[in-house]
Design goal:
Low-confidence stretches: none
Helix content: 40-55%
Distance between the termini: 37 Å
Mean pLDDT: 93
Structural class: alpha+beta
Strand order of the largest sheet: 1-2-3-4-5-6-7-9-8
Number of helices: 13
Shape: globular
Length: 333
Amino acid sequence: ETDLAWLLRQFEHLSIAERAKANLFDALELWVHWKLGNSPATRTKMRLRVNKIFYHDGPLIRRSEVSLARELEDVLPLPLKKLSRADGEKLVSLGRDMMTVRYRELHGFTYGDPRHVLRAAAGRGVEFVIWGLPPGHRLPLLGYHAVLILKNGVPAGYAESLALFERTEVGVNLFYTFRDGESAWIYSRLLRFLRQYLHVSVFSVEPYQLGSHNEEGIEAGAFWFYRKLGFHPVQPQVARMVAREERKLANRPGYRTPARILRQLAAGHLLYEAPSAPHPGEWDNFRVPNIGLAVQRRLVQQFGGGERKLRQALVPSVAHALGVKPTDLSASE
């Protein structure tokens, strides 16, 4: 038994909450060395068996050929398959390995729920594997889902979705190997899949994805990737800057937006609304923290700051609105 295995076993026996265990382990600041060797976790061997390999026998789909509006309004659903818990555990574990060998971590890959894993066939050898979080790790306001992106069974990237009603914030990362291989089409199919599965119609991209405090996004010109697909800025000052840059691009052949300007363009969210979105324009100024602030104001005004009183007052009304009985829910739910 390795020292790490022994240590983890001791942590498992601790009679404290899982979050406390995680905090305690992090506090140790241990260096862990993983010898991948010839294991399935290596990039060379990390793959799933697929029934049929897709071979590209024609040109790749260019970004100019991709229409988000067409994809999002397509009524033909992508084929979905609900996986067993055992198969779900394998996919979540594969996703966790995929992130770890690349020195990355996302909440949904660390705490993925293997009981609710679905696999969607997107076409051209692309598959999306999606899962949520167990009750103890869910977010208070947003519905979180992690997505593993596969190409012919090989991990090609990952995504996360944080949804509230018909709006979702989407973060995507396609690995370098696949970025010139129909990235725009894969992204459009991902949004189509999220609309089908989560019933969302408004898609938001947060500043980090665009390059805010993220030089990789600046170097890749991420802002223009989304803009050319039809996303629009929600901040007026950014919208004015975009208009100026688009005029330069149209009138000055060979012009490229400087990194300094790209950082300014990445200052705010971008949105895309499906043509049939129910409330056009109403999500432009939405901010998740505003909900928390509104709850705090109500907590003070109506309940004198008493959180327990607020919960007692809201549980019956929320349960009625959702059509559930509080007694049917577990403590974590």
